[in-house]
């Protein structure tokens, strides 16, 4: 099954699920629900863009949600501490970029497997942020009456919710990055065979840094959207939440192979579309969180099995840069 | 009043009498008797106002009376919590203070601890397993009172739809189980009340926001949201606010009355808040700890019990003095 056909299959499944929900679930087939579904999926879409780029290099960023929460915590703390939005944003941006650089540096220059490197940084970021910034607390509340926060959570551009517009923009940037730039071509080459990419003189280390910084930037943007909408930054999203699991699920489900070198923006759109439709439909059906987890877990297992079938282990490259 | 309630009230009165007697008695006597005793607190997680508030009060009293006091933080990790509780049993303290994440998780271990002579004081969230004492909110009462208020605001004669969305933390958590049971018991007598959603948020504000925004568009005439805990209900309240339905949908929540959450009542994110005052609970827990260390014990098959007084904070009666601050 080719990359494009798996994306088509997932899109077809999502459409089928949408049609079934539209027929049987009250309230699913309405513009208001479509808008709501898109808004609730915006942060997942943005995070998936960053994760997809890293996974295509045959990496994995387990620290993405920790970066998201840490950067939005820095933003929230500064904002509630009386600093202006530009200063708070600048600090959060610098923090996110630095964390991305650390991840990329560990993977590219120390050649630590991405799974271990980002797991370690996730733990460091979470523990360090709680200890140094929050002094043990788990929660930062954001002032919803702040015009910037209010604009992110309920602002619109040409009638489109701001969070959705931002998600579409990030999808476009990801598409351009992957398909129109040297960085993008190097990303795919690294995922296909990192040894060959290195031998052919491609800037493998620099591109690894770019991939992890890009993932950190998407984490920052998603974090600002989540925090502004819910009015809180909650560290349990890292320690207990399922968001990281959902991001990986979306990316793999859409056809981005965990073995690297495969996938595109269409893969992300297909994955997000299916997960968003399933989640929205199940919420409208008043299914319990546990039942929803069961369905999504089964979906992920199916995706991994299909991924394994489509991309069997290559004996020539299996020891090079595996997760 | 049922026999259980009468017994609870009697035990409560007995404990409170003992507390008064303690307060009036000589601290020097208590010092001698309690010095060197050991208490281990196993919370679901530190870093939240509830547990920090309780622990602060217990630590204060422990220091005053020479009691060795230790916290073993599970940091929201249920597996770690079970292991920490097991290690606490192995260390044979005089009291283990248990903060049960679910009604089942620590049940066997609480039984084992009590059988080996360690007194277990359960705080705010109870297990299905009885132990020496319980200090905390009466979740049945809170669930019933909120449901009765919902009936009043959304039921017959209110001109409202009667539609209610419940946003529990976890369906197996003690507070969610007890509040839902009590609420559904009330709603049973009011067929005009329709619970259109009852989905757990895993205590996360963002999940609560997403559930509420989805339910709101399915039921634009929703009358009330009943969030089981103030922290995650902030997300639900913000979904209501962002949908421009602040004047139409009542948002109910419960919690320990910390300033952070109270600010959200002032801002209209939460409309009605049943506060059990975590700072006061901490003081009650510290006193109960001393009472147990002096030998107080329940009758066979019962628990010493202190139910926390409740304050209902609304937009109308809101005052900063109704909330408490954690000293920095």
Structure in words:
The complex is a heterodimer of chains A (about 325) and B (about 325). Chain A contains 14 helices and 4 strands. Chain A is mainly alpha-helical and about 325 residues long. In chain A, the strands form 2 sheets. Chain A has a two-stranded antiparallel ribbon. The radius of gyration of chain A is 19 Å and the shape is globular. Chain B is of the alpha/beta class. Chain B is built from 11 helices and 12 strands. In chain B, helix 3 runs parallel beside helix 11. The N and C termini of chain B lie far apart (about 45 Å). In chain B, strands 2-1-3-4-5-11 form a 6-stranded parallel β-sheet, with helices on both faces.
Topology:
The complex is a heterodimer of chains A (323) and B (328).
Chain A lengths: L2 H22 L6 H26 L7 H17 L4 H24 L5 H20 L5 E3 L5 H8 L1 E2 L2 E2 H19 L1 H11 L1 H6 L4 H27 L1 E3 L1 H4 L3 H12 L10 H20 L4 H22 L13
Antiparallel strand pairs in A: 1-4, 2-3
Helix pairs in contact in A: 1-13, 2-7, 2-8, 2-10, 2-12, 2-13, 3-4, 3-5, 3-10, 4-5, 4-10, 6-10, 7-8, 8-10, 12-13, 12-14
Chain B lengths: L2 H22 L2 H8 L3 E5 L6 H17 L2 E4 L6 H13 L4 E4 L8 H9 L3 E5 L9 E4 L2 H16 L8 E5 L6 H15 L5 E5 L6 H14 L5 E4 L2 H13 L7 E6 L3 H8 L5 E4 L2 H16 L10 E4 L3 E4 L14
Parallel strand pairs in B: 1-2, 1-3, 3-4, 4-5, 5-11, 6-7, 6-8, 8-9, 9-10
Antiparallel strand pairs in B: 10-12
Helix pairs in contact in B: 3-11, 6-7, 8-9
